[in-house]
Each structure stands twice: as structure tokens, then as C-alpha cells.
Backbone:
């Protein structure tokens, strides 16, 4: 596995791969890798000849009061995991190399980004779209693998790829969960032991929603009330808990088309997200 | 010369060219081609194996009170000129193919775009950056040739390519002028015969600036006053007339570093722009 730390060198390597006819698979990450990320790398290997993993904690997608500085970083461990999982290139640029002096170009998604995490985290998806556009131009992948855990991010980036005609196919990978159902996340380690036990409430509330939907319930308010009841038994504070149209991300009251139910819950140590599609 | 009207087909052709090892040169235009555009095509041919010309009157870069509907269009003539000048592909998409229903992704350049034409035409460079990002992803060129006549556009797009790491090299081509010095523009045909004669005032004012600069004048206000005097002898109304730093596009009072002098003048039939670098 080759470690590359500048955009110029990564782009050069990507050109060489393309010229030699190899398909490039790409897994963008912020590091602190867990089994969820590794599943993305394995999927990328199925679709492509060469797999590039990027590790970049993107300052532009963190708000001024968010956890940029505290975000967990462990490059040595990440490098070992990438190598063991079969990545061919690890792209690990510095913020200074990614955002040059006077950086003044930004992408914004103006529809899907305005709700859910976008409403709670202003500027977050502007940062995500901008860095992923940069990464796509640097890595030039044929396939990019993204996790379904970041449901809104997946939909916003699908929209970006569509609207800007990026020549890449996005593959969505199922959320990987701990034994008790908690979605794997780099932020789980911020939880206190007591909160870690309570954190299963997110996946439990989604299971509740799925069970009600399977039993024929189509009223969004009734499903959300049942989900809220699961969260409210814990110390977690609901940041948002919504049922939205899976295409437009606009709130729905009756579940007629595929719907996304998504929630964010704040514990003392971390804000966690999870989601499920009801169809 | 192959005429292509969908982004999908253009992207497919671009991939084939790349796979066969050919370098792609790209000239984006809004059609109504004149000798200025043809010079860009000829330059692209010097740098690349295959030359793609796009013709797309981009609705997103016109303001609500601008001349989108009136913008001159003559596809048959343009096609003939492209063919004669040696273009290999003519990409001619419809607005519906370029902006799909629910298009919600926009680029914005937040520094260089705020002055000169950007101040007079709010949203213009947002439209320009968005469509050029799309075109770069569709045509996948190694080289893009842009005219120096659109000085601010050239600098904004250079910034876009830098900040978003687009894998393309931008070549700037000198402005092509009529015999009397008027910069060629698709909008010149809107001028009345009397205005056409007066329109030489733009290039004359730039010549005046260059002469003063060559004679040692470094005071921006004095140079601008002399330029304004040239315009004010005509029926043209100055939209802007500025001397700015060539890198940052911020106004300068003393000319110490390379400076861009740029102006826009409104006649009854058309708003014309021109510029020169003083170094």
C-alpha cells in the first residue's frame, strides 16, 4: 500500500492507473476507522482494480462549536487497518495542502441539505460537497463507496454527482452495527459507559418504526411518537427525529412512497445519528 | 466532426478518447462564433489530439433582466465554422439535458467574483462556475482554452480549477480585435451603426491607459480619469471602469504589481467589456 500526502502526487498516481486501464475504487473517510469503514473498502475492492482510501478530517464541514479539534485521530492504527483490508493507496493530505491560501470556491446543495443534519449543522454539507468534489477530481475514481449510515450525506452526494455530472458511480454500503444494534461510528468512543448502553436506543427506535410500518401503520406522527418514546427513556436528547420522503427529504405525514426515518440524539459526549428506509 | 447532444454520450466519447491515449482540448462557448472563438479552437488543436467545442447558452449565468432570450443563436453557421476550423466534436446540449429537474447543486467563488462584472451581474459567476464544472466533468479535457477578453471569468475559472483540483490545464488566448481595435464579441451585432463606430472607445481608453503607464504614470485615479474621458465623448455609459490587482482583483491606488484595468460600457443595444494588463 502506497501512502500519498499531496493532491498533486495522488492525481499523478490516478492518471497512471487510468492510463494502464485500471478501474479506481474510492472510499473517503475522516479516519479513526472501524468495521464500517473496512466494509466499504472490501466493497470497493469488488468493484475496482485499485482501491484508494482517503483520510482527511475536513475542517470545512465542522461548525465553529463542533468537535474538529477533538475528533479522534490515530493514523498508525488506520494505516495498519487499510493495509490489512487491502487498500492500494492511502491518501492522507494536510489541511494546508487541501485548502490553499485564499481558497474561495465552494459548492452548495440547496434542497436536500436544508433539513435533518443540514438544519442542525449549518455549513456542514457545503463543507462535505466541497471536499468530496475536490477528492473526486484528485482521485478520479470510477466507483465511490459511501455508507448508508450517513443517509443524508449519501443523498446529497448522489445529487452532487448527478447535477455536476461527475463521472463516478456511487455504491451505498449497509450500516455496520455493534452486537446490540448501535451503528458503528468514530464518535461512539466519546460516550460514557452508561451512555454507551443507552445509545442502543437509536437503533431500537428504528426497529420500532419498522415493526409499526410492517404492521400497516402509515401515519408518520404515530410512528414518530413511538420512536420518541424509546429515546425519552434515556439521558439522550433528541436533536431531530423525522420521517421524510426518501427522494426529496421533505417531511411526510402519510407513508405512501419510500420514506426515510432519521434521527440524531445528543449524549453528553457525542451526537449520534442513525436511519432506516421504510418501504 | 461529430455532433453530440447529451452529456451521457459526450462523457462516453470522452472516455473512449482517454482510453485510446488521446489528449482532449476543450473550448466552451455560447455559440454565435466569431474569429475570437476560432482562435481558441486553433490553439486547442496545438495542445491536444482531439478538440471538443461546446455550444451552450447557459441560462444560469444570465440575470432575470438580461438578454438570455435575445442572445444570438445560429447553430448552422456555428457548426460550419467549427468543422472548417478543425473541431473533432461539437457538444450542443439542451438546457433540459444540462439542468435536470430539481437541480440543486451550485458552485460559488466568493472572492474574485464580487467585483467588476460580478458586482454588476449578481449570480453571473455562480452560473459560469457551475456550468463549467459540469462541462469539465462531461468533456474530461486535459486542456481548456479561454479568451483573455473575459478577464474576470478567466481568473475565476483558474481559481475554480485550483481550488477544486480539476485535472485540467487552462490556456489563456489573446483577445481578437476588429481592424479598429474593438474586441470581437457576439454582442457587437446588437450595436447600431453609430454605436459600432463609437464602440472603439473601449480599446482606445485601454490604449490610453497603456500609454500613460509606459510613460511612468502609477497613479490609478489619474489613469482612470484619462480612460473615462475617452468613454465620455461617446453615447456609451460606463458600467464600471477599474484598475485592480491582477491577482486579487482588489482596487489599487498605486500601480506597483501587475494590474488589470477592466471596463464595461453600456450602449443602447449592448453592454461591452474589454481589459488590459498593465505590467
Residues:
Amino acid at each position: 500500500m502506497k501512502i500519498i500526502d499531496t493532491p498533486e502526487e495522488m492525481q499523478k498516481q490516478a492518471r497512471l492507473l487510468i492510463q494502464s486501464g485500471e478501474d479506481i475504487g474510492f472510499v473517503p473517510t475522516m479516519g479513526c476507522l472501524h468495521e464500517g469503514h473496512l466494509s466499504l473498502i472490501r466493497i470497493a475492492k469488488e468493484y475496482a482494480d485499485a482501491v484508494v482510501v482517503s483520510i482527511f478530517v475536513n475542517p470545512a464541514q465542522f461548525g465553529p462549536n463542533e468537535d474538529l479539534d477533538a475528533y479522534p485521530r490515530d493514523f498508525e492504527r488506520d494505516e495498519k487497518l487499510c493495509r490489512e483490508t487491502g487498500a492500494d493507496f492511502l491518501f492522507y493530505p494536510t489541511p494546508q495542502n487541501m485548502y490553499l491560501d485564499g481558497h474561495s470556491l465552494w459548492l452548495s446543495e440547496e434542497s436536500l441539505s436544508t433539513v435533518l443534519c443540514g438544519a442542525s449543522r449549518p455549513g456542514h454539507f457545503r463543507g462535505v460537497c466541497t471536499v468530496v468534489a475536490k477528492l473526486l477530481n484528485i482521485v478520479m475514481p470510477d466507483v465511490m463507496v459511501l455508507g448508508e449510515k450517513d443517509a443524508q450525506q449519501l443523498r446529497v452526494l448522489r445529487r452532487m454527482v448527478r447535477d455536476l455530472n461527475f463521472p463516478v458511480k456511487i455504491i451505498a454500503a449497509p450500516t455496520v452495527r455493534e452486537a446490540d444494534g448501535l451503528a458503528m461510528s468514530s464518535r461512539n468512543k466519546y460516550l460514557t459507559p452508561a451512555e454507551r448502553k443507552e445509545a442502543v436506543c437509536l437503533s431500537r427506535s428504528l426497529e420500532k418504526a419498522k415493526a409499526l410500518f410492517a404492521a400497516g401503520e402509515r401515519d408518520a406522527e404515530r410512528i414518530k411518537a413511538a420512536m420518541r418514546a424509546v429515546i425519552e427513556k434515556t439521558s439522550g436528547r433528541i436533536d431531530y427525529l423525522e420521517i421524510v420522503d426518501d427522494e426529496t427529504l421533505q417531511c411526510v405525514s402519510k407513508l405512501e412512497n419510500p420514506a426515510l426515518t432519521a434521527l440524531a440524539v445528543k449524549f453528553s459526549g457525542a451526537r449520534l445519528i442513525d436511519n432506516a428506509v421504510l418501504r
Notes: The longest strand of chain A covers residues 237-245. The mean pLDDT of chain A is 97. The domain at 2-173 of chain A is CATH 3.40.50.620 (Rossmann fold).
